[in-house]
Amino acid sequence: MAISKKFYLILILGSLAALGPFSIDMYLPGFDAIAQDLNTTVPKVSLSLSGFFIGISFGQLLYGPLLDKFGRKKPLYIGLVLYIAASVACLAVKDINQLIILRFVQAIGSCATAVASVAMVRDLFSVKESPKVFSSLMLVIAISPMLAPTAGGYLIAAYGWPSVFLFLAVMAALMLAAVVFFLPESFSPDPDYSLKPSPIIKSFLGVIVEPQFYTYALVSALCFAGLFTYVAASPVAFMNIYGVSKTGYGWIFALLSVAFIGSSQVNSLLLRWFSSKSIVKWALLCQTIFSIAFLIAAFYDMLDLYSTISFIALFLACLGLINPNASALSLAPFFKNAGSASALMGAIQMGLGALASVLVSFFPEDSVLPMPLIMTVVVTTALLIHTVGSKKLSLS
């Protein structure tokens, strides 16, 4: 594959994969403004974030079979049109319940881009190339935490929080044009693939019983739950507890994303000398150690703004190493049903992310402790699953 063609493919696929993260991050600086306009509280507004996670988790299971039945592009059209419609509808919400519902619908649309982009990496690139391609996708995806909250902060300050959803609608429309005119169809529709419940369930079961899939998919999902914990808790931690402004919060988000971007690109270099399995093993161990240290510091009230940022940066740096390798290892055993495998992996990620973000909303608004507590629980669980699963894989 020519370098220029590969570059444009990765750019488009990365942009599609980044639509969900952009949708999550961009409106975070507006939580206070949304709460005031809709006569509710910031924890209630955070439930709209949880609704988004739940929508992505559910929607990916829907799109997986559609991608394997109709090819990759037609489901993408459906998802992007639905996303645009929901984004425009968010401009006119009158209460928080309407926003929660529309964010759920918006997520159903965006998860088409998440599933399709991952499945198309498996379609277009070899198993050996996939970890490096996923690292390149991480570069595009990781730009969203740099740009989204910062841009959202300025948009909200100038035009109010509804302007964020108008921006997202326009961005999705541009992506739809790129898919129509520039993205090739990477998978021929399978007329024999049944959309009846029984064959779909059988296909998902065929994926989930594969030890390599469930080991690395669960590891990736649990570590991502730590990321979503940070996303859900950060408006309270940085703006309410540490007194950071909306634009300052955006810049902190951008700074922290550098750790994620940097480590995901270092991963491409490490793959020259180390296997994906080895990188996941050591990065997960380091992430667990950092999370426990973060929890201890929070428990003994030793944290300030800068130490909190430092611990989160270390967590994200480890995630940048874990995720591309765990994703590639999860999908490696599959080809024909890569869409279903991608959907199931994404559903597990977003389902656990939604659960973590909901848990954050139940904690009081005057403590940073919930963030490291949930992070530590999920990554230590991931380490345990990896340890047991690796032994099983080595014996098989």
Automatic annotation (TrEMBL):
GO terms for cellular component: plasma membrane. Keywords: Cell membrane, Membrane, Transmembrane, Transmembrane helix, Transport. This is DHA1 family bicyclomycin/chloramphenicol resistance-like MFS transporter. Its main location: membrane. It comes from the Bacteria. The keyword Ribonucleoprotein does not apply. It is found in: Cell membrane. Residues 9-396 form the Major facilitator superfamily (MFS) profile domain. It comes from Arcticibacter pallidicorallinus. PANTHER family: MAJOR FACILITATOR SUPERFAMILY (PTHR23502), POLYAMINE TRANSPORTER 2-RELATED (PTHR23502:SF132). Coiled coil: none annotated. The chain crosses the membrane at residues 7-24, 44-63, 75-94, 100-121, 133-157, 163-183, 204-228, 248-270, 282-299, 305-322, 343-363, 369-389. It holds the Pfam family MFS_1. NCBIfam families: efflux_Bcr_CflA. GO terms for molecular function: sodium:proton antiporter activity; xenobiotic transmembrane transporter activity. Belongs to the major facilitator superfamily. Bcr/CmlA family. InterPro entries: Efflux_drug-R_Bcr/CmlA (IPR004812), MFS (IPR011701), MFS_dom (IPR020846), MFS_trans_sf (IPR036259). GO terms for biological process: xenobiotic detoxification by transmembrane export across the plasma membrane.
